[in-house]
Amino acid sequence: MLGGNPVCALERRSLAGRGLHVSELLDARLEAASGLYHRDLVAHYGCINAIEFSASGALMASGGDDRRVLVWDVARTLSGGRHPVVPMVSQHLSNIFCLAFDAAERRVFSAGNDKQVIVHDLATGAAVDVFTEQQAVYGLSVDPCRENVFVASCENGRVLLFDLRMSLAEPHSLAEQGSSLAAYYSAMFSPSEPQLVATANSKTGAAVYDVRMPGRVLQRYGACRYGAMSARYSSDGRRLFVLRRRLPPVLYDLMSPTSPICQFDHPFYYNSCTMKSCCFAGSRDQFVLSGSDDFNLYMWRIPDNPETKRVSRAHAVLRGHRSIVNQVRYCPQNGLLASSGVEKIVKLWSPVQLPDSEGGLTFDPETERSSRRIPRQGEYVDMVVNAGDIFGNDFNQQSTDEDPRMLAFFDSLVQREIETLTTETDSSTEEDGAPSRRRGDSSDETADFHSYFAAASDLDNDPTDGCAGVSCPVDNIISRMIDIKRSQLMRAARLRWRRAAGVPASSDEETAADGFHSRHRRVLHKARYVWLPLGGAEVSSRYTARAPPAAASSDDSDGAPAEAAGAPLTNGNTKDNFSRLNRRDFRRRNYRRRH
Length: 595
Description:
By secondary structure, the chain is an alpha+beta fold. It has eleven helices and 32 strands. The strands form eight sheets. The protein has a five-stranded antiparallel β-sheet, with no helix packed on it. Strands 18-19-20-21-25 form a five-stranded mixed β-sheet, with no helix packed on it. It is globular and about 65 Å long.
């Protein structure tokens, strides 16, 4: 049943009369797959920050840094067409962050960094309405029963309820964060009870509001101290999948807000650097998906056993992207997955073979692994200094070619974030094993982070875990860094909680943990930030520089350096001066300048 190519059979089959057989076939192939067929859609000129399927699955919209909204005809795309059928006429003034279709598929909504919500007519491509907001808009959702009503989640800590029939009226404030101004990253109407809206806030986490009671939280999920960046309903509206920064994704039953159904993890999964989304997949929503900083898309199967509270291995790791994967959406009508991120492509995934597709239902390390070389942080600085401002993209050139500088920027961002993760969690650990409060990071979140790694380390060593001992291929240097840091954090967290519980640890664990802590205390003291003006312009980038070696002369170092004040270096032409200096001399000169 799983062999062969069923594309021709699917084309001849009427979905209206025999849709159940198609769903069963797609589900069976998803269950048996460790990979999927995939193909690229090339049309954008920059990063793609938003993708969305229409309710019927006939259309897909995409938008990103090139400020354009492109609408794809899915049937034409599957048959070999690579170009959007309807490019929207009106463009944004800055990056697009979110998209949404109405239920009738007559309009598509877009919003982003320019503080505007534009309503496009799908028949003509023209803008039929524009709403302005005070800050950037990160999320959009249209009421599935009332196509004139939609919500927008904003950077200034508000979720606004709009009605197209009252375009000149002030929108209703469904949720507000008050003086904290913590951003709402997503908002979604419930597919079964449209009066309910699920939100994800950067500070208070996931919550559900009722549009009939604006300003009042109907229910919070998890603890309000854990921030969230995405919250998605299942198709029946009974479950909520929540994506969190630096912590594993978690699944909730709407009726059990304090006790999650399950948490999902994988040895190389990491989510910290960019804004990401998540989704359900399968005809019964039996899978959940999320992108990762290690360039992969992870698909977990929701366990049938309610006693299973943690899944430590992904059901499938979808490889093929060449940079961070941010967005993912599933179309239940045809079993398609769409993903996008830092690259200029939308990648379609399918359990059946598509025209001009690559890959298969099994992972082949020879063909699926990315061949792109990932530069180190120092190499990226050289690239920026020699090439100019990375953010000076000219989208008028209409180039769909891969931008190596943009990819290198996010490579450097991930590497720096992973190193910061280690030093922050290490510095928050005190001698008695209790977490200390840091600026911008609550002690409760740090405690949860340590407890998670302690539990994950025990789970990975549990022989009863069905996925224990499964080898995971290392795709690139970022995957290797994530694997090393996770192992170190698990070992340190396990020792920390054993000390707090009064359980003696083995001498090997004590030695390894002490070496880990002392090594990263040194790194924390050595790290400092050096501001680099690019081409004489205002400072727009930071680079983590290392202190000179301990053997340097006494006038170079007078103890552990403090963090830089952030003053720009303005001695003439900085680009030419920097290119004539090696990194060691540059660091010494900057250190003398500040001392």
